[in-house]
Design brief:
It is an enzyme of class 3 (hydrolase). With about 180 residues, the protein is of the alpha+beta class. Helices cover about 45% and strands about 15% of the residues. The chain has helices at about 10-20, 45-60, 75, 80-85, 95-100, 115-120, 125-130, 140-150, 160-170, and strands at about 65-70, 90, 95, 105-110, 135-140, 175-180.
Length: about 180
């Protein structure tokens, strides 16, 4: 629920505002508030618990595509890495990934890049275009501005380094993904 600084309720509302700007209705937003999944950049979440919750959500909502972090979590955030780990989890002698495929669900992971590439914004487009990826998304100026407006809804998280991120991060303009 984003309660790292005891701002869970504020961050839930900010998430709904951000999603609204992106055209996602509040009814399609699910916030999990589980005591064993604390919002903390240094805590790895329980893999089996998280894999179970994700699988149940996919089944209940007939989801056919999951986009998540890779093993680097883009920023090294332990919670982000835990999501990737949960999707790679061996569940009842099967990879949870195989169970997703049986449900008709594809999983894409967002590529973590080094610090230099992370902060060269549009200059990373030629580099990413030359490197292998299963999917490459390059946002238009209008889409990038929409993403910035959506991020600005997260007032409680807009620390100085996130302003730099919004200005210079490649992830505001380009995202390379690969199939899990």
């Amino acid at each position: 629920s984003g309660n790292y600084y005891n701002q869970g309720e504020i961050r839930k509302k900010e998430l709904e505002q951000s999603c609204f700007l992106l055209g996602i209705p509040a009814s399609d937003v699910t916030v999990i508030d589980h005591r064993d999944l604390p919002d903390n950049p240094a805590i790895e979440w329980d893999t089996q618990l998280l894999a179970t919750l994700v699988l149940k959500h996919i089944e209940a909502n007939n989801i056919n595509l999951v986009v998540t972090f890779d093993a680097g979590g883009v920023s090294g955030h332990a919670n982000h890495i835990s999501l990737y780990t949960a999707l790679r989890y061996k569940y009842c002698c099967f990879d949870i990934f195989i169970l997703f495929l049986c449900l008709g669900c594809c999983v894409l992971v967002l590529e973590s890049v080094n610090l230099f590439r992370k902060y060269i914004s549009v200059l990373d487009v030629p580099i990413s275009s030359l490197l292998p990826a299963d999917a490459l998304f390059i946002l238009t100026e209008e889409e990038t501005e929409q993403a910035r407006r959506a991020m600005r809804c997260h007032h409680s998280q807009l620390l100085w380094f996130r302003h730099i991120y919004m200005l210079f991060s490649r992830y505001m303009v380009i995202n390379s993904l690969r199939l899990l």
